[in-house]
UniProtKB/TrEMBL annotation:
Organism: Varanus komodoensis (Komodo dragon)
Keywords: Lysosome, Membrane, Transmembrane, Transmembrane helix, Transport
Entry protein name: Lysosomal dipeptide transporter MFSD1
Boundaries of every Major facilitator superfamily (MFS) profile domain copy: 1-401
Compartment(s): Lysosome membrane
Length: 425
């Protein structure tokens, strides 16, 4: 069961990193330290602590999918322009505001994208479409990581010097893809409207029913899944945000080499996410796969922290484990939560994920400024250890309650067929 089929893990996280990597060009141009730099990451997350609950509601009840997609795409475009103008004017608070505006549109745009997919495709082809969406997002991140440094250099050659003006212009050039996204939203809205008339089809809704009072009914297994999610992802995204400079300083790579190795997580994730999704579909044993992914991630961070081995090995392991965890972890929510609570559960999961990413991003910047990369890697390893403890606890809690989260796919399908037969009878 591919996690992308649930619309999570996560177009939005990839888009967040896309723009973090754009601004990860020489941030010394803005005369800021690492803690302030990582606030640009956090400012994306803050609005999504709340908006992940209401993005689906606004699409369903307020804007509709077509207008909602255009509005959220516009927020992304405006946010990136403000962000770039802030760099050109050497005004850091304006850059933070731009990231905030960008964040308002980012998560909700992901919800709209998934709603379109559900509207146009169904069944097994829907799994393929979601897998392709996830792969395209990863490819976009990879291309960005490897090309924005080159764009900055070309602008620098054109202007004759580096500085915040050069950075701002590079950010504006990078923001052209946001305009392409908005144009695509307009075209897609037109095509969807024509399909509605020609095929007499209704607009699909997100299916997200949010009821915050359901939180009190969440099981221990679900809370452990939340802990695994937060503790794992805070050791991935902030690390990649700071990874380029890490590889330059520790391994003495060139800027281009550092960008290439920092993007290997997404290079691997693009083709492997659909493959791992199919594998988990066929085999089952979700907790076992999550355990393998967390342990592999811990090994990867320790290799980067305590050895000078070729980091391509550690980053490749990180890419494989990241893809595997996404495909095994997010579907487990649907196994432990009734259908009418799925919207609330996934919304809450994304909310605390964004809260954790916002807080840890700032903390990571402060640790790097005061203690250096070794302590930062130990900090990330500690986060993964917390995730590992939660996985072990989930295994035993699940075992005591019947073991359904770690059933094989064959056993799960058999029991589902029996349950359906009993219901029909």
């Amino acid at each position: 069961m591919d996690a992308s089929a649930y619309g999570f893990d996560n177009y939005s996280s990839t888009k967040r990193l896309w723009f973090l990597e754009v601004c990860a060009l020489p941030f010394q141009d803005m005369k800021i330290n690492t803690a302030n730099f990582m606030q640009l990451y956090a400012w994306y997350s803050w609005p999504n602590v709340v908006l992940c609950f209401f993005g689906g509601f606004m699409i369903d009840r307020v804007f509709g999918i077509r207008l909602g997609t255009i509005i959220f795409s516009s927020f992304v475009c405006v946010g990136q322009v403000i962000f770039a103008v802030g760099a050109i004017c050497n005004t850091f608070w304006l850059m933070e505001f731009g990231r905030f505006v960008f964040g308002i549109g980012g998560e909700s745009l992901a919800v709209a994208q998934n709603t379109y997919a559900v509207s146009w495709f169904k069944g097994k082809e829907l799994n393929l479409v979601f897998g392709l969406q996830l792969s395209m997002a990863r490819i976009g991140s990879t291309v960005n990581m490897n090309i924005m440094g080159w764009v900055y250099s070309r602008v620098q050659d054109l202007l004759g010097s580096a500085g915040y003006t050069t950075l701002g212009i590079a950010l504006l050039i990078g923001g052209v893809t946001c305009i392409f996204s908005l144009v695509s939203a307009l075209i897609l809205g037109y095509l969807d409207k024509r399909a509605e008339k020609i095929l007499c089809k209704e607009q699909k809704k997100t299916g997200e029913v949010i009821k915050l009072t359901d939180v009190k009914d969440f099981s221990l297994s679900l809370w452990l899944i939340f802990i695994i999610c937060v503790c794992y992802y805070v050791a991935i995204f902030p690390f990649i945000g700071l990874g380029k400079v890490f590889f330059i300083e520790k391994f003495k790579f060139s800027s281009q080499e550092a960008s290439a190795i920092n993007s290997i997580v997404y290079v691997i994730s693009a083709p492997m996410s659909p493959v791992f999704g199919l594998l988990v579909d066929k085999v089952g044993r979700n907790i076992t796969w999550v355990l393998c992914a967390v342990v592999t991630t811990l090994v990867s961070h320790n290799m980067l922290a305590f050895t000078y081995w070729n980091p391509w090995v550690a980053m490749s392991l990180l890419g494989v484990s990241y893809s595997l965890l996404a495909c095994a972890l997010w579907p487990m929510v649907a196994f432990v939560v009734p259908e009418h609570q799925l919207g609330t559960a996934y919304g809450f999961m994304q909310s605390i994920q964004n809260l954790g990413l916002g807080v840890i991003s700032i903390a990571a910047g402060m640790i790097l400024d005061s203690r250096g990369y070794l302590i930062l890697e130990i900090f990330f390893s500690a986060c993964v250890c917390l995730s590992l403890i939660a996985v072990v606890m989930l295994y035993f809690v699940n075992l005591l309650r019947g073991g359904d989260l770690n059933w094989s796919a064959k056993k799960r399908n058999k029991l589902q067929k029996l349950a359906l037969a009993e219901k029909e009878t």
